[in-house]
Amino acid sequence: MPDLSTFMLPGVPAPIFWLFIAAAILIQGISKSGFAGGAGILSLPLMMLVMPVDKVVACLLPLLILCDMNAIYHHWHNKVWRNILRIYLPAVVGILLGVLVWWWAGREEVESYELSIKRFVGVIAILFGLYIIAKERSLRWVSEHQPGNKSALAAGLSAGFTSTIAHAAGPIVSLYMFALGMGKTLFVGTVAWTFTLINLTKLPFYVGIGLIEWEILRFDLFLIPLIPIGSFLGHWMHHRISEYWFNRVIMVLTLIAGVQLVLNVNVVLMALSWFLSPAL
Questions:
Q1: Average pLDDT, stretch 87-112?
Q2: What is the pTM of this model?
Q3: What is the domain partition of the chain in residue ranges?
Q4: Measuring CA to CA, which residue among 69, 88, 93, 60 is closest to residue 211?
Q5: Rounded distance, CA 92 to CA 102, Å?
Protein backbone atom coordinates (compact mmCIF):
# COMPACT_ATOMS: atom_id res chain seq x y z
CA MET A 1 0.00 0.00 0.00
CA PRO A 2 1.50 3.39 -0.98
CA ASP A 3 1.85 6.19 1.55
CA LEU A 4 -1.57 7.85 1.32
CA SER A 5 -0.33 11.02 3.03
CA THR A 6 1.24 12.07 -0.28
CA PHE A 7 -2.07 11.57 -2.11
CA MET A 8 -4.48 13.23 0.33
CA LEU A 9 -4.91 16.95 0.81
CA PRO A 10 -4.50 18.11 4.42
CA GLY A 11 -7.68 17.79 6.45
CA VAL A 12 -9.39 15.29 4.14
CA PRO A 13 -10.81 12.30 6.09
CA ALA A 14 -9.96 8.90 4.59
CA PRO A 15 -13.62 7.90 3.96
CA ILE A 16 -14.27 11.13 2.03
CA PHE A 17 -11.03 10.67 0.09
CA TRP A 18 -11.95 7.16 -1.05
CA LEU A 19 -15.56 8.17 -1.76
CA PHE A 20 -14.48 10.95 -4.13
CA ILE A 21 -11.78 8.85 -5.81
CA ALA A 22 -14.07 5.86 -6.31
CA ALA A 23 -16.86 8.07 -7.70
CA ALA A 24 -14.42 9.71 -10.13
CA ILE A 25 -13.16 6.40 -11.56
CA LEU A 26 -16.66 4.92 -11.79
CA ILE A 27 -17.84 8.01 -13.69
CA GLN A 28 -14.99 7.53 -16.17
CA GLY A 29 -16.03 3.93 -16.82
CA ILE A 30 -19.72 4.84 -17.08
CA SER A 31 -19.02 7.75 -19.44
CA LYS A 32 -16.73 5.84 -21.81
CA SER A 33 -18.89 2.70 -21.98
CA GLY A 34 -22.41 4.07 -21.77
CA PHE A 35 -22.51 7.70 -22.84
CA ALA A 36 -20.49 9.62 -25.43
CA GLY A 37 -20.92 13.11 -23.99
CA GLY A 38 -17.55 13.47 -22.30
CA ALA A 39 -19.08 13.26 -18.81
CA GLY A 40 -15.80 11.82 -17.54
CA ILE A 41 -14.55 15.39 -17.23
CA LEU A 42 -16.27 15.44 -13.82
CA SER A 43 -13.62 13.02 -12.52
CA LEU A 44 -10.88 15.63 -12.49
CA PRO A 45 -12.55 18.33 -10.36
CA LEU A 46 -13.88 15.65 -8.00
CA MET A 47 -10.39 14.28 -7.41
CA MET A 48 -8.82 17.74 -7.15
CA LEU A 49 -11.07 18.44 -4.17
CA VAL A 50 -9.25 15.72 -2.20
CA MET A 51 -5.85 15.25 -3.96
CA PRO A 52 -2.90 17.44 -5.08
CA VAL A 53 -3.31 18.42 -8.74
CA ASP A 54 -0.15 16.72 -10.01
CA LYS A 55 -1.15 13.42 -8.34
CA VAL A 56 -4.61 13.65 -9.91
CA VAL A 57 -3.48 14.01 -13.52
CA ALA A 58 -0.72 11.43 -13.02
CA CYS A 59 -2.84 8.67 -11.48
CA LEU A 60 -5.72 9.26 -13.91
CA LEU A 61 -3.70 8.74 -17.10
CA PRO A 62 -2.94 4.99 -16.76
CA LEU A 63 -6.57 4.41 -15.72
CA LEU A 64 -7.85 6.41 -18.69
CA ILE A 65 -5.72 4.28 -21.00
CA LEU A 66 -7.26 1.12 -19.53
CA CYS A 67 -10.73 2.62 -20.05
CA ASP A 68 -9.76 3.50 -23.63
CA MET A 69 -8.54 -0.06 -24.27
CA ASN A 70 -11.85 -1.40 -23.02
CA ALA A 71 -13.73 1.02 -25.28
CA ILE A 72 -11.79 0.15 -28.44
CA TYR A 73 -12.20 -3.55 -27.64
CA HIS A 74 -15.94 -3.01 -28.11
CA HIS A 75 -15.40 -0.74 -31.16
CA TRP A 76 -12.38 -2.36 -32.84
CA HIS A 77 -13.75 -1.95 -36.36
CA ASN A 78 -15.87 1.17 -35.75
CA LYS A 79 -13.46 3.91 -36.74
CA VAL A 80 -12.59 6.30 -39.55
CA TRP A 81 -8.80 6.72 -39.66
CA ARG A 82 -8.93 9.90 -41.72
CA ASN A 83 -11.04 11.65 -39.09
CA ILE A 84 -8.88 10.33 -36.27
CA LEU A 85 -5.67 11.61 -37.85
CA ARG A 86 -7.17 15.05 -38.56
CA ILE A 87 -7.52 15.52 -34.80
CA TYR A 88 -4.58 13.44 -33.58
CA LEU A 89 -1.74 14.95 -35.62
CA PRO A 90 -2.26 18.56 -34.46
CA ALA A 91 -3.07 17.18 -30.98
CA VAL A 92 0.55 15.98 -30.73
CA VAL A 93 1.67 19.64 -30.91
CA GLY A 94 -0.87 20.53 -28.21
CA ILE A 95 0.44 17.66 -26.08
CA LEU A 96 3.99 19.00 -26.36
CA LEU A 97 2.81 22.46 -25.27
CA GLY A 98 0.98 20.95 -22.31
CA VAL A 99 4.03 18.90 -21.33
CA LEU A 100 6.11 22.10 -21.35
CA VAL A 101 3.65 23.67 -18.93
CA TRP A 102 3.88 20.69 -16.55
CA TRP A 103 7.68 20.60 -16.89
CA TRP A 104 7.90 24.29 -16.03
CA ALA A 105 5.51 23.90 -13.09
CA GLY A 106 7.58 20.99 -11.75
CA ARG A 107 10.78 22.97 -12.16
CA GLU A 108 9.32 25.89 -10.21
CA GLU A 109 7.59 23.63 -7.63
CA VAL A 110 4.09 22.47 -8.56
CA GLU A 111 2.62 23.85 -5.33
CA SER A 112 3.27 27.38 -6.62
CA TYR A 113 1.00 26.71 -9.60
CA GLU A 114 -1.53 24.45 -7.90
CA LEU A 115 -4.19 27.15 -7.49
CA SER A 116 -3.78 28.31 -11.11
CA ILE A 117 -4.14 24.74 -12.41
CA LYS A 118 -7.17 24.15 -10.18
CA ARG A 119 -8.82 27.30 -11.49
CA PHE A 120 -8.01 26.31 -15.08
CA VAL A 121 -9.73 22.97 -14.49
CA GLY A 122 -12.59 24.73 -12.71
CA VAL A 123 -13.19 27.03 -15.68
CA ILE A 124 -13.16 24.05 -18.07
CA ALA A 125 -15.63 22.23 -15.80
CA ILE A 126 -17.96 25.24 -15.73
CA LEU A 127 -17.75 25.62 -19.52
CA PHE A 128 -18.57 21.93 -19.91
CA GLY A 129 -21.56 22.30 -17.59
CA LEU A 130 -22.80 25.21 -19.69
CA TYR A 131 -22.11 23.17 -22.84
CA ILE A 132 -24.47 20.46 -21.56
CA ILE A 133 -27.17 23.09 -21.00
CA ALA A 134 -26.80 24.29 -24.59
CA LYS A 135 -25.92 20.87 -26.02
CA GLU A 136 -28.88 20.56 -28.35
CA ARG A 137 -28.29 24.00 -29.83
CA SER A 138 -24.55 23.36 -30.00
CA LEU A 139 -25.01 20.10 -31.87
CA ARG A 140 -27.57 21.66 -34.21
CA TRP A 141 -25.18 24.53 -35.01
CA VAL A 142 -22.22 22.15 -35.44
CA SER A 143 -24.21 19.85 -37.75
CA GLU A 144 -24.83 22.81 -40.07
CA HIS A 145 -21.15 23.75 -40.29
CA GLN A 146 -18.90 21.08 -41.74
CA PRO A 147 -15.42 21.55 -40.23
CA GLY A 148 -12.54 22.20 -42.59
CA ASN A 149 -8.78 21.95 -42.15
CA LYS A 150 -8.58 25.06 -39.95
CA SER A 151 -11.26 23.66 -37.62
CA ALA A 152 -9.40 20.35 -37.42
CA LEU A 153 -6.15 22.14 -36.60
CA ALA A 154 -7.76 24.28 -33.89
CA ALA A 155 -9.67 21.33 -32.40
CA GLY A 156 -6.57 19.11 -32.42
CA LEU A 157 -4.29 21.69 -30.79
CA SER A 158 -6.91 22.51 -28.15
CA ALA A 159 -7.65 18.84 -27.49
CA GLY A 160 -3.98 17.96 -27.11
CA PHE A 161 -3.26 20.84 -24.74
CA THR A 162 -6.36 20.53 -22.51
CA SER A 163 -5.99 16.76 -22.42
CA THR A 164 -2.37 17.03 -21.26
CA ILE A 165 -3.08 19.67 -18.62
CA ALA A 166 -6.36 18.33 -17.34
CA HIS A 167 -7.61 15.26 -19.30
CA ALA A 168 -10.44 17.54 -20.39
CA ALA A 169 -10.64 17.29 -24.17
CA GLY A 170 -13.87 15.28 -24.28
CA PRO A 171 -16.25 18.06 -25.39
CA ILE A 172 -13.79 19.35 -28.02
CA VAL A 173 -13.28 15.97 -29.69
CA SER A 174 -16.96 15.02 -29.37
CA LEU A 175 -18.21 18.22 -31.01
CA TYR A 176 -15.70 17.95 -33.85
CA MET A 177 -16.47 14.30 -34.55
CA PHE A 178 -20.22 14.90 -34.35
CA ALA A 179 -19.91 17.58 -37.03
CA LEU A 180 -18.52 14.98 -39.44
CA GLY A 181 -21.84 13.11 -39.45
CA MET A 182 -20.51 9.57 -39.13
CA GLY A 183 -23.50 8.03 -37.38
CA LYS A 184 -23.66 6.90 -33.74
CA THR A 185 -21.60 3.69 -33.98
CA LEU A 186 -18.73 5.17 -35.99
CA PHE A 187 -18.86 8.32 -33.86
CA VAL A 188 -18.40 6.44 -30.56
CA GLY A 189 -15.69 4.19 -32.00
CA THR A 190 -13.76 7.00 -33.68
CA VAL A 191 -13.82 9.09 -30.50
CA ALA A 192 -12.58 6.07 -28.49
CA TRP A 193 -9.69 5.46 -30.90
CA THR A 194 -8.79 9.16 -30.92
CA PHE A 195 -8.46 9.29 -27.15
CA THR A 196 -6.54 6.02 -27.08
CA LEU A 197 -3.88 7.55 -29.34
CA ILE A 198 -3.82 10.88 -27.47
CA ASN A 199 -3.50 9.25 -24.04
CA LEU A 200 -0.85 6.74 -25.17
CA THR A 201 1.15 9.64 -26.64
CA LYS A 202 0.99 11.51 -23.32
CA LEU A 203 2.22 8.54 -21.29
CA PRO A 204 5.99 8.61 -22.06
CA PHE A 205 6.07 12.40 -21.57
CA TYR A 206 4.36 12.10 -18.17
CA VAL A 207 6.98 9.53 -17.19
CA GLY A 208 9.83 11.62 -18.62
CA ILE A 209 8.98 14.77 -16.64
CA GLY A 210 8.42 12.81 -13.43
CA LEU A 211 4.62 13.05 -13.13
CA ILE A 212 4.17 9.26 -13.17
CA GLU A 213 6.31 7.33 -10.69
CA TRP A 214 6.10 3.89 -9.09
CA GLU A 215 4.03 5.25 -6.19
CA ILE A 216 1.42 6.45 -8.68
CA LEU A 217 1.21 3.03 -10.34
CA ARG A 218 0.96 1.28 -6.97
CA PHE A 219 -1.91 3.58 -6.02
CA ASP A 220 -3.62 2.87 -9.35
CA LEU A 221 -3.58 -0.86 -8.63
CA PHE A 222 -6.20 -0.29 -5.94
CA LEU A 223 -8.42 1.60 -8.40
CA ILE A 224 -8.24 -0.74 -11.42
CA PRO A 225 -11.14 -2.97 -10.19
CA LEU A 226 -13.43 0.07 -10.39
CA ILE A 227 -12.95 0.29 -14.19
CA PRO A 228 -14.86 -2.89 -15.16
CA ILE A 229 -17.52 -2.01 -12.58
CA GLY A 230 -17.93 1.42 -14.17
CA SER A 231 -17.96 -0.17 -17.63
CA PHE A 232 -20.67 -2.61 -16.59
CA LEU A 233 -22.72 0.21 -15.05
CA GLY A 234 -22.28 2.25 -18.23
CA HIS A 235 -23.62 -0.54 -20.45
CA TRP A 236 -26.47 -1.17 -18.00
CA MET A 237 -27.40 2.51 -17.71
CA HIS A 238 -27.16 3.06 -21.47
CA HIS A 239 -30.34 1.05 -22.04
CA ARG A 240 -32.20 2.06 -18.88
CA ILE A 241 -31.42 5.68 -18.09
CA SER A 242 -32.17 8.66 -20.30
CA GLU A 243 -29.02 10.36 -21.56
CA TYR A 244 -30.89 13.65 -21.04
CA TRP A 245 -31.23 13.09 -17.29
CA PHE A 246 -27.78 11.55 -16.96
CA ASN A 247 -26.26 14.65 -18.55
CA ARG A 248 -28.34 16.95 -16.32
CA VAL A 249 -27.04 15.24 -13.16
CA ILE A 250 -23.46 15.41 -14.48
CA MET A 251 -24.00 19.08 -15.39
CA VAL A 252 -25.05 20.03 -11.85
CA LEU A 253 -22.21 18.10 -10.20
CA THR A 254 -19.65 19.49 -12.67
CA LEU A 255 -20.79 23.08 -12.14
CA ILE A 256 -20.65 22.67 -8.35
CA ALA A 257 -17.17 21.13 -8.46
CA GLY A 258 -15.95 23.70 -11.00
CA VAL A 259 -17.14 26.68 -8.94
CA GLN A 260 -15.43 25.26 -5.86
CA LEU A 261 -12.12 24.96 -7.73
CA VAL A 262 -12.36 28.49 -9.17
CA LEU A 263 -13.17 29.96 -5.75
CA ASN A 264 -10.67 27.65 -4.01
CA VAL A 265 -13.22 26.37 -1.50
CA ASN A 266 -14.30 22.86 -0.57
CA VAL A 267 -17.92 22.76 0.50
CA VAL A 268 -17.72 19.12 1.60
CA LEU A 269 -14.80 19.73 3.95
CA MET A 270 -16.40 22.94 5.25
CA ALA A 271 -19.62 21.05 6.00
CA LEU A 272 -17.71 18.22 7.68
CA SER A 273 -15.71 20.67 9.75
CA TRP A 274 -18.91 22.39 10.89
CA PHE A 275 -20.70 19.10 11.58
CA LEU A 276 -17.83 17.52 13.48
CA SER A 277 -16.80 20.61 15.45
CA PRO A 278 -17.90 20.59 19.09
CA ALA A 279 -20.97 22.66 19.88
CA LEU A 280 -20.13 26.09 21.20
A1: 86
A2: 0.82
A3: 4-276
A4: 60
A5: 15
